[in-house]
Design a protein that fits this description.
Elements lengths: L51 H89 L1
């Protein structure tokens, strides 16, 4: 009968092994027992070292946990990129609104300028008429 000792769940345990079946292979790929990103109930359980099937299941679980970790990192990077793009979009929209506001203000000021130039021209014409009338009065008196 084979007995295995259970390690308490609150104590971290690390086990490293090679994924290759041959012990001579110097593959440096190893997996720790504890994956900090996984919930406790999803952590790979230590394999029964005498059972090839148990070792294979453990290796598969570790591979899946590693893939999960990579996917989680990629999701975090994509979330960060999303935040950056949203911030950039908001900035572009703000600049676009600022440009639209400036264009509207420019149109209003251009219209006001045209109106003022017209008023100035009318005032200059009226002043010229008044001068002519004044000169006629001066000449007739």
């Amino acid at each position: 009968m084979i007995t295995t000792a259970r390690v308490p769940a609150d104590k971290p345990v690390r086990i490293a092994f090679s994924l290759s079946d041959s012990p001579d292979d110097d593959s440096s790929e190893s997996f720790p027992l504890a994956f900090p990103d996984l919930d406790q109930q999803l952590q790979p359980l230590p394999p029964c070292h005498d059972s090839k099937e148990s070792m294979q299941v453990y290796k598969q679980h570790c591979k899946i946990a590693e893939e999960y970790h990579e996917v989680k990192k990629e999701i975090a990077l994509l979330e960060e990129r999303k935040k950056e793009l949203i911030a950039r979009l908001e900035q572009v929209e703000k600049e676009s609104m600022d440009a639209a506001q400036l264009a509207k203000e420019y149109a209003e000021l251009t219209e006001e300028n045209r109106t003022l130039k017209l008023a100035q021209t009318q005032c200059v014409e009226q002043l010229e008429k008044l001068r002519i009338q004044y000169q006629k009065r001066q000449g007739s008196s």
